[in-house]
Every structure is written in C-alpha cells, then in structure tokens.
Fold this sequence. Notes:
With 194 residues, the protein is mostly helical. It has 2 domains: 3-70, Orthogonal Bundle (Arc Repressor Mutant, subunit A); 74-193. The chain contains 11 helices and no strands. Helix 2 crosses helix 3 (41-48) and helix 7 packs parallel to helix 10 (151-169). The radius of gyration is 20 Å and the shape is elongated. The model is unreliable at 1-8 (pLDDT under 50).
Amino acid sequence: MNLEGKESTRRKAESPHEVRERIIRGAMKIFAKQGFFKTPVHLIAMESGVSKGLIFWYFSSKDELILEVARRSLPLDLMKECLGRELEGRRLLKCIGEKYLDKYESDEMRQLLIHTMAIEALYPEVRRNIKELCENLLKEAAKRAFGDESKESVIRMRGFFGSLLCYVLRPPSDISSDEYLNGAIDLVWRSEAA
Length: 194
C-alpha cells in the first residue's frame, strides 16, 4: 500500500471527534502564527490534513472555529479543574499557578492568549468567557483561597492571576518558574497577615 493509501486508511479509522480535534489543533497552530483574521481557511486545511470543505462540515463558519480556539486559549479549563478538586488556601493557588505556567509554556498558547484578548470587543462570546474568568471563577478562587469574597480577597486573587500573566508574557531570565510561583503565592499570602 502506498503512503497515500495508508494515510487514507488511517483517516477513515478516525472518529468525527478525532477529525474535529485535528482541525482545531491545526487552526491553533496557524492562528498563533498569523492571527485570527489574517489566516485563510485553506492554510488551516493544509495544516490539518483535511479539505477546506471538511472544515466547514465541522464548523459552520470561520468565526465558529475562531471562537472554539479562543475559548481553549483562555485559562478557563485550568481554573475549573483546580476549583473542581476542592482545594483551598495555598494548595489552590499552587494548583492554579502550576497549571497556568504549564499551559502557557509554549509560544503557541501565549500567542493565542494574546490574540484572544485582542478580539474581546468583536466577539460577545469571548467577552462572556473573559467575564466568567475574571469575575465568577476568580471570585470563587478568592473565596476558597482566602476564606471570603471580600474586595480585598478578590483583589489579591486578581493580583496573583495578573502576576502569572506577566510571567508568561515576559518570563524573567533570572527567576525560575517554580521560584516565581512560590514568590507570587507568598506575596498574596503575606498580605493576608498584614
């Protein structure tokens, strides 16, 4: 069997979910390099190894694909995972911090996060996702980390989250990620005693 035949056989064995995920992964790679609006769908098709038509079989429009990639680029998943573990205090902060730094370790995910924040004004769904993150999930995290939902606790949680964002956008060359994370946790924790 030639290479084309093997590839065709492998793809026939893929489930619809696997094909959809392959398209999303291809889109993430291309969107990270070129942005959401400068990327033509045929490049996503080439990267994903599918036809342009198949992309529109799984996604009704390029905008629908953009919204899926944008949602995945936000830290919603890691916040929900850590909150779902019933962690509290420093253990919750550690979970969020480790997962955040891990998720955005790759340049691709950092670029997608930046592109996603830039389109918030154009896409109400992205705006809702960011609101859910910055209001609801961070408020719940503040309650679980610091014991209440006071303005001070929410500000501390936002400060912690902001410090993570700053680290992934421009990691300091003289501070390891572990040292940085532990320092950020200590900083918001100490302000509790103040």
